[in-house]
Structures are given as structure tokens and as C-alpha cells.
Amino acid sequence: MIPKKSVFNKIIGDSHFELQFASFLDGCNDIISYAKNFFAVHFKLDYRDADGAISDYYPDFIVKVSEKEIYIVETKGREDLDDLLKIKRLSQWCDDINSIQAEVRYAWLYIEQEKFEKYSPKNFSELRNAFKGEREIL
């Protein structure tokens, strides 16, 4: 996909849903920019997986809503055993980074494909409101 709002000139998704979500972000008038995270970006979190091993987790998207607000977004088409563990780690990371600095507020969203298609948000604000209850999964 050739984006308009991404910091990169092309978006390569790991799934059709990731490309669908990138297209959604590209059409959001209420965000500044976004990036599809991948290995070369080097934004990763270590977490303990379902087997107890330390693994790397690369959240799917980084969304800049304003100069003071950034969302880390995980999209999910098919769930696996490690997903809840990854989200718990992402939640902890956001809490930790927000506790040591106040310049930018970091938050997370967990976007399941089925619910995304059901809610059909028109902008990022609607997306945020529709999925803020997903925090209860923790």
C-alpha cells in the first residue's frame, strides 16, 4: 500500500487485516501520522511467552494523534496463546514510560478484526471509544 500519512513510503502488512487497518489510518483526519512497526524499526518489547521463555513482541502500529499523544496498536485477526501476555506487557510498558516522563502520553489499543468490522469506525476517535473497553481483557 502507498500511504499518505505514514512515515514510510510503503506499507507491507503481515496480513490482509493489517493492510485494511493501515488504509483506515490513512483516512483518519484526526491523527497526524502512523507507522507500521516491523523488525527494522527496532521497537520491540520483551515478554515471557506461554512456555515461559523470553520472546520479542513487535506491536503492529504506532499512531501519532497529537504532539502529546501516541497510541501503540495491536491488530489481531486470529488469536493465539501469547496474545494476552503481549498485551499485558504492552500495557505495562505504557504505564512505565508514562511514569518516567510527561512530554508524551502513550496508550495502547487491541483491535480484533471481527469487532473492527462490526463497529466500522469512521475515525480514530471512534476507534478509540469503541475499543477502550478492551482494557478489561487484562
Structure description:
By secondary structure, this protein is of the alpha+beta class. 32% of the residues lie in helices and 25% in strands. It contains four helices and six strands, in the order H-E-E-E-E-E-H-E-H-H. It has a four-stranded mixed sheet, with helices on both faces. It has a two-stranded antiparallel ribbon with strand order 2-3. It is globular.
Give keywords.
138 residues; alpha+beta; two-stranded antiparallel ribbon; 4 helices; 6 strands
Determine the structural class based on helices, strands and strand pairing: alpha+beta
> H/E element string?
HEEEEEHEHH
Distance between the termini: 33 Å
Multimeric organization: single chain
CA-based gyration radius: 14 Å
Low-confidence regions: none
**What share of the residues lie within helices?**
25-40%
The largest sheet has its strands arranged as 1-4-5-6
Shape: globular
Largest sheet: 4 strands, mixed
> What's the count of strands?
6
Portion of residues in beta strands equals 15-25%
Tell me the layout of helices and strands.
Layout: H1 16-26, E1 33-36, E2 45-48, E3 54-57, E4 61-66, E5 69-76, H2 83-100, E6 105-112, H3 113-119, H4 124-131
Parallel strand pairs: 5-6
Antiparallel strand pairs: 1-4, 2-3, 4-5
Summary of the model, kept short:
The protein is of the alpha+beta class and 138 residues long.
